[in-house]
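1st attempt posting a full record on here, be nice pls
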Amino acid sequence: QLVESGGGLVQPGGSLTLSCVASGSYLDYYAVGWFRQAPGKEREGVSCISSTGNGSTYYTNSVKGRFTISRSNAANTVDLQMNSLQPEDTAVYYCAATPPVRPIQNMCHQDFLRGWGHWGQGTQVTVSS
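the predicted structure (as tokens):
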């Protein structure tokens, strides 16, 4: 089971850290992804990280240099540090996990959404003044 936390309302230019906590399994064996879905839009991959042994990461172009994905194996979490947030970052953010079966940049692509075996319920991020 995956549970996201850390969403909320923030002003443009602000920061938030989202956390994805797993219960019942060890996240370090899984690829983990952060996805988002804005109203009226399709779900998109924001950032993904491969299993601990690999550690590869991927960021969609619109968040490169602003977002950072990281693992805390001790806490069994994967965090998404989001800086310089903009109104276009407003969405429900979901974390997902699955065994790594492809290069992480391919797993984070929209074409692979159905390949993620476990999803959280989502956390709302709203960027507004």
